[in-house]
Structure formats: C-alpha cells, structure tokens
Specification:
By secondary structure, this protein is α/β, with parallel strands linked by helices. It has 3 domains: 178 residues, Alpha-D-Glucose-1,6-Bisphosphate, subunit A, domain 3 (Alpha-D-Glucose-1,6-Bisphosphate, Chain A, domain 3, 3-Layer(aba) Sandwich); 224 residues, 3-Layer(aba) Sandwich (Alpha-D-Glucose-1,6-Bisphosphate, Chain A, domain 3), CATH 3.40.120.10; 134 residues, Alpha-D-phosphohexomutase, C-terminal domain (TATA-Binding Protein), CATH 3.30.310.50. It is 32% helix and 26% strand. It has 18 helices and 27 strands. The relative contact order is 0.11. The mean pLDDT is 96. Bound molecules: 1-O-phosphono-alpha-D-glucopyranose and zinc ion (ZN). Zinc ion binds next to loops.
Length: 544
C-alpha cells in the first residue's frame, strides 16, 4: 500500500457547531477542505482506535464524493475496516446503531440534518465515538484545535468502490464492507417494540397512517419497517426515495416545512396518524387527525406511557431534556419518582447520562426524541413508540394527549426563529443582554415581573466538565419562561431562537392556541429584545 502525504494549508474556520461542521457545499468543495477536517479527526484517535469505522450519510449532494474520499483516507491512516451503508446511505440513528452493534471505534456521518441540500446548499460532517454518540465537547474541541495547525493529510490512491452493491472490497490494506443500510436498525426496532401489536393496529382496518420521509434518508427505513414488516398499506410512506437535493425541499419535520403532510393531516378525512422525519432521520414530528403534538409534550407522554412498550417494561432510570424544552416531562418524572436532568441544547450532552445509566429517555423541543437504545435522537423510533402506545391504549393521539393534560396540566410551548440576522449585531445583542441579567430580577417587563435571569451553564454530572453560555433563561412571576440563544447549526448569518413556555393547570384552559396562551410572554420578549429597532424584524421567520 502506498500512502501519499499531501501538503495542505489549515483553514481557520473549521469549528464544529451544535452538531458537527456544517458549511455550504462550495466551501466543502474547496481543495483539501474536507480532507483537512477528516485528517484532524483521525489525528485525535490513537492506533487502537483505528480498527473499525462506520461511514455513511443522508444522501445529500456531495455525500458520494465525500464517502469515497473518507474511505481512501481511512485506508491511509491505518484503519483495518470500514463499514459503509449501501449507496453511501446511513441515517444518523442507523449509524449510531451500527457503531454499537459492530463495536466500531466510531463513525463519520455526512449530513447537515434538516438543512436544504444541493450544489448551492449545505453539507456537513460529524464524528461519533465508540458509544455511537456525537463526539463530546472535549473531543470536538481537540478536532478543531488540530484543524488549525494541520499541514498535510494521508491518502491512498485507488478507484472508487462500487457502493451500489452489498459486498466486500480491498482499499490499500483495508477492508471495506458495503452493508445493508436498513437491516441492523430494523432488527433493533423489532427488539424494542411490540411489532405484533402494531401490525394488528394496521390490520384492524380502523387505523391509517402517512409517513412523510421528505425525500430524505428515512424513506428506505420507513418503507421496510412500516410497510414491509408492520404491514401498513403500500403508499403509507410518501416522498420515500432519497434525493440528493431532497426534492428541493427543506426536510425539517415541522408544520412549516412538512407542509404536504400538514395539509393531509389537517384536511378532511385525515388519517389517524401522521409523522415525518428530517434529512438524516433523527428528528420526528407526530400528528393526529387534525391534531399537532408538540415535541416537548411528546417526550412527556412517551415517558408517562413507557411501561406499555417492551423496551421499558422494567421501568426507566431517569429522563433528560434540553434546557429550552418545556418542563412538561419534569412533572411526569416527579410523579414516577425518577431524576430529570436539564442539559444544554445538542444531543452530545445526553451521551454521558445515557452511558452512565442515569437516564433512559431524553428529548429536545427541536423534534428530537431518543433513548438508551443508541446515542442519537431517533425519528423512526419515536414514531414506532407512539404506534406501540396507540396499539395498546386503543385511543387516538388526541385522546391520549387530552388525558395527559388533565392529569398533569399543560405546558404551552412555542419557539420563534429569526433567521439570517447580521451575525456581529446578533452577538453584540447577546453581550448586552448578559450584562443586563444581574439587574433584571425584581424588574417588570410590561406587566410581567422577572423572578430570575441567568446565562445557563451546565456541569456534566458524570465527568464534571463545564459548558458555559448555553442560553439565556429568564423566569417570570406568572410561571412563564423565556429562553434565548443563537443557533449553532446555521450556515448563513445568525439565527436567533426565542423559546417560550408556561404551565397551565386550569382544566378549562387546556385547548388554547399556544400562540394565544403565550401572548403575554411573546410581548415581553419583544419589549426586552427590541428586534424591530435592532434588525427591522417584527415577525419571526419560523414558528414551531
Ligand atoms: C438545532 C436544535 C438542537 C439540535 C441541533 C441538531 O441546533 O435547536 O436542539 O440538537 O439542531 O439537530 P441549533 O441550531 O439550535 O444550535
Ligand atoms: Zn437531523
């Protein structure tokens, strides 16, 4: 095997964000750009950590090129074996599943999640460790440090391997196995849920479903599991063929971007159940017939009903939610007598809690839900979890939700996103806000009194690492809460996320429109931030 040592110059801005390195495709297409990042990642591994590597992505434009490059570099860097999904495809949860199943040292996942794809859109790369989860803050930092002073990378010269067929190849001294992207993941799902009960639900004739794969990676997974194994009618999965531009859509499963599904579920004769997942298959949106289920509520309800599915028949250890996620699950945890952790935004913060057995379930308001079955959020898993609950309870999602709210009260939640803000001005606004925090408690914003105001910092209970500046959290005397942070996944300007939530215990006020229920908080946020004056924005771009 002849290893080429290719000289290159460091790029100064390869700092991974909330979930890996995301940039426009043209940035990744610059000579040495991808290679530098991959080499920096490999440089963080010891010789012992170079046995097996899992590689795959969400199928977006440049996925195929990147997969071949990574294979050539893995061979040159001394890996024994690469496992790659057929056609270069692996959903993020399936990659996590394979890393764990085959005891790999880690994996490289090519995805920019729900961001649009195509030659002028986004690409992304992230490294997951041997536990199957996103690299920790410490590893991410050291990859970044290494990108700053890299001056060469290693590569073997070899032909592209045929990714279309399952089989084994040799690249340099390394073995490359092209494996079925779906099979292992599907088996894992069968071990967690009562497939017979769910199949019975489809057979009963009074339950129907639509799953919108949004032209992204989950299509083949959903077709195999929902249609082939569970017997849902053919055509239940729509937009099921992965396209490299996601059909020019924005595969983010929310009511704004999954508008095709929303139109079906809020139309006449809507099916009983609707669901969608995102570009790389780790997010989920759950809908009933003319009913939207907020992801914060979904986490709370899955936790409350966990004992109904085989995976959690023995109970659950604890739960965690990201800080901006509503406090709905906290009430369930209290009732169950289990711990509830509050982490910063980003799945990587759940990893230690899951590895340490402190939690069994976790979730984020951003349509991410998951459990200790792997170390990523998992869109299809959440859908199967819900199907299993419905099959046991024989009720609609709406009925289950209403009963839940009657018991626990309802935590109204909304997120308002302001996209494409001028980055420097947005950062300056946060600096100014942080300076204001100490003086806010005791003051009123409009009619709401501030009870506390903090710049959220998190100490990991397992390794004691500290992460600061994880979002501003302001609590009010009406029980409401306002959280502010800047997105760490965008690729253009800054995206401001404004999260609002408030508990409602009055049984007569449980079916309000969240935007109305939260209007006092929305007004307080307007007054505090003055976005109209600062950025000329009077309305958010996306409301979820
Ligand atoms: C967003 C979500 C966050 C999620 C991440 C990766 O990050 O808000 O919850 O973990 O995508 O899917 P953000 O853009 O807010 O940094
Ligand atoms: Zn995703």
């Amino acid at each position: 095997m002849i290893v080429q040592r290719i000289s290159s110059t460091a790029f100064s801005e390869q700092k991974p964000g909330t979930s890996g390195l995301r940039k426009k495709v043209v940035v990744f297409q610059q000579p040495h750009y991808l290679e530098n990042f991959v080499q920096a990642t490999f440089n963080c591994l010891t010789v012992d950590q170079k046995t097996t590597l899992v590689v795959g992505g969400d199928g977006r434009f440049y996925n195929d090129v990147a997969v071949q490059t990574i294979i050539r570099m893995a061979a040159a860097n001394g890996f024994d074996k690469v496992l790659v999904g057929q056609n270069g495809l692996l959903s993020t949860p399936a990659a996590s599943c394979l890393i764990r199943q085959y005891r790999a040292d880690g994996g490289i996942i090519l995805s920019a999640s729900h961001n649009p794809a195509g030659p002028t859109e986004d690409f992304g790369i992230k490294f997951n460790g041997a536990n199957g989860g996103p690299a920790s803050e410490t590893v991410t930092q050291s990859i970044y440090q290494k990108t700053l002073d890299i001056d060469h990378y290693l590569m073997v010269s070899s032909d592209d391997i045929d990714l279309t067929k399952i089989g084994s190849h040799g690249v340099g001294d390394m073995q490359v196995d092209v494996i079925d992207s779906v099979a292992d993941y599907a088996l894992l799902m069968e071990s967690l849920f009562d497939f017979e009960a769910i199949a019975g639900l489809f057979k009963s004739g009074n339950f129907s479903m639509v799953f919108d794969a949004m032209h992204a990676v989950n299509g083949p997974y959903a077709k195999e599991i929902i249609e082939n194994r569970l017997g849902a009618a053919s055509g239940t999965v729509i937009n099921g063929i992965p396209l490299d531009d996601f059909g020019q859509g924005h595969p983010d499963p929310n009511l704004v971007h999954a508008h095709e599904l929303a139109a079906i579920m809020f139309g006449e004769n809507a099916p009983s159940f609707g669901a969608a997942s995102d570009g790389d298959g780790d997010r989920n949106m759950i809908l009933g017939n003319n009913f939207y289920l907020n992801p914060c509520d979904s986490l709370a309800m899955l936790t409350a009903n966990a004992s109904l599915v085989p995976a959690f028949q023995q109970g659950i250890n604890g739960v965690a939610r990201s800080m901006p996620t509503s406090r709905a699950v906290d009430a369930v945890a209290a009732k169950l007598g289990i711990d509830c952790y509050q982490t910063p935004t980003g799945w990587k913060f759940f990893g230690n809690l899951l590895d340490d057995g402190k939690i069994s379930l976790c979730g984020e308001e951003s349509f991410g839900t998951g459990s200790d079955h792997l170390r990523e959020k998992d869109g299809l898993w959440a859908v199967l979890f819900w199907l299993n609950i419905i099959a046991v309870r024989k009720q609609s999602i709406e009925q289950i939700a209403l009963e839940h709210w009657q018991k626990y009260g309802r935590d109204y939640f909304t997120r308002h996103d302001y996209e494409g803000l001028e980055a420097k001005a947005a950062q300056a606004m946060f600096i100014q806000l942080r300076e204001q925090l100490a003086s806010l408690p005791g003051q009123s914003i409009n009619s709401l009194g501030v009870t506390s105001a903090e710049d959220f910092a998190y100490t990991d209970p397992v390794d004691n690492s500290v992460s600061t500046h994880q979002g501003i959290q302001i609590k009010f005397d009406n029980g409401g809460r306002l959280v502010l942070r800047l997105s760490g996944t965008g690729t253009q300007g800054a995206t401001l996320r404004v999260y609002l939530d408030q508990h409602e215990g009055d049984p007569l006020k449980l079916d309000q429109d969240p935007q109305l229920a939260l209007q006092e908080l929305v007004k307080a946020a307007d007054t505090l931030l003055g976005l109209e004056d600062k950025f000329g924005r009077s309305q958010p771009d996306v409301i979820t």
